[in-house]
Amino acid sequence: MVTDMFSNLEVEQVYMAFPDSIRDKLLQTRAFIFEIAEEAEEIGHIEETLKWGVPSYLTSSPKSGTTLRLSKLKSEETKYAMSVHCQSSLISEFKEIYPDQMYDGNRSIIFDVRDNPSETLIKHFVYAALTYHCRKK
Question: Which InterPro entries match (predicted)?
Fold first, then answer.
């Protein structure tokens, strides 16, 4: 799959509206999503869409994961988030593994463009979100 290209024009427009520094970070995370999905058989096809006005990634076949959303924080010019459904256990799991990371309740991991986020943490969270339902069984 070519991850540079968008199949959904609305999603592309949302990315293009992000400030450059945040867009770059979120596009890198987007690339990780497609890379991880391609490498892991259990994830299957990823659907890229908008949910609540932000780029969202869900496993449509099989339904192995919970929706992963990428967004800029409205209240903070330099912060962005990877979010999942607030009733999943993902954030509480990650708080134990990565206690020094910033979080927003039960739904998001928060990053700041001025920091250099751990690629390991990002990829770990992407994989955990996209395999959430198949791991729970």
Answer: YdhG-like
Q: Are strands 79-83 and 102-104 parallel, antiparallel or unpaired?
A: unpaired
For residue 25, what are its two tokens?
Answer: 């970070």
Task: Report d(CA 43, CA 93) in Å as an integer.
Answer: 20
Q: What's the pLDDT tens digit per position in 63-95?
A: 889 999 999 999 899 999 999 998 899 999 999
* Gap between the Cα atoms of 33 and 44, Å rounded: 12
- How many angstroms separate the CA atoms of 91 and 61, rounded? 24
The CATH class of the 9-136 domain is: alpha beta
Q: What's the pLDDT tens digit per position in 54-70? A: 999 999 888 889 999 99
